[in-house]
Amino acid sequence: MRGDNVRSDDPGTFIGAISAPSPYTPALEAVFLCLSRARRVCEQSHRGRAKMLNEKEIEAEIVAKGKTAPRLTPDHIDAQIVGEAYYVFPGTTLTICALTLKNGFQVTGESAAASPSNFDEGLGRKIARDHARNKIWAFEGYALRNKLAGL
After folding, report:
1. CA-to-CA distance for 82 and 95, rounded, in angstroms?
2. Cα torsion for 54, 57, 59, 63, to the nearest 10°?
3. Which residue has the higher pLDDT, 140 or 48?
4. Complete domains list, the chain, with CATH
5. Cα separations (Å) of 11 from 5, 16, 77?
6. Which of 11, 125, 130, 148 is the right S-S partner for 27, CB 3.0 to 4.6 Å?
7. DSSP 8-class letter at 137
């Protein structure tokens, strides 16, 4: 790790930034597409300037642009889920979703209403499930990258 390209007197600068060269390879395309997809959706939703794209719109754009490198798709993510369980903590709005994946691994997501009068168990389940499902992208991206790297 090298930090010589980072000034320590800059407020908010992370000291010890990694500046190692990393050559681009076609095998990284899948990872870059996944990260680009997540970044674009986050940027658009946080800026509020554009409607947040859903996964189907993003997938359609990837296909329309002729991107053919191995990548994750919403259908692949959904195919990993073989079970789901929910729990709402008594007296709270905290809802937990545990998704069980094909290999037995579980990912969790949570939701909670800031105001108890806004709590709706069905909506809480949807939000918690979405949060759990979103975590699968990172795990599957890691697994795909290992496969592409021959590991």
Report:
1. 20
2. -170
3. 140
4. 26-71 (no CATH), 73-151 (3.30.160)
5. 15, 14, 40
6. 148
7. H
